[in-house]
Amino acid sequence: MAKLYLNKPSKEDEVGNLQPSKETINFLLNYSKALSVIDYKKMKFEALLN
Question: Is the Cβ–Cβ distance between 31 and 24 less than 8 Å?
Answer without folding.
Answer: no
